[in-house]
Amino acid sequence: EVQLVESGGGLVQAGGSLRLSCVASGSAFDDYVYGWFRQVPGKEREGVSYISSSDGSTYYPDFVKGRFTISTDNAKNTVNLQMNDLRPEDTAVYYCAADREITMETVAFVSPELVPPFGAWGQGTQVTVSS
Q: For 57-66, which contacts have Cβ atoms below 8 Å and span 24 or more sequence positions?
């Protein structure tokens, strides 16, 4: 099973940018759909960006569309999340996740609460946006 390690979190002012990275190891990088999720205490975890490492297709929910960009560097087994125009409500712990069975069609067209949990998760990295 793939192992995931995130980095790049931190403190930024509203309107600023951060780039998160997730290094995958232990399994073939291009067998997975990767996602970035976030969670704040007392709230449900929510997906913010998804990418297929095999064909590069992406999906973003409306609340981050135009601000967040997910990408992969297949040579470095890395999934990146570029976050621009950050808002205080983007403050959360951000997690990288991967799954071999979940498809891009599922994350794009199925209600989030019905998407099966991803199988592999990183430890999370804190992102704090000050107003």
A: 57/104, 59/104, 59/107, 59/108, 61/112
3-state secondary structure of 76: helix
Burial of 69 (0-12, 13-18, 19+ CB in 10 A): middle
Q: What's the average pLDDT block by block, 10 residues per block, for the chain (131 residues)?
A: 95 98 91 96 95 94 96 95 98 97 91 88 97 94
Rounded CA separation 31/75 (Å): 14
Residues 6+ apart with CB under 8 A from 5: 22, 23, 25, 122, 123
Q: Across the chain, which distance is largest between two alpha carbons, in Å? A: 41
**pLDDT tens across 89-116, in order?**
999 999 999 999 999 999 998 888 888 8
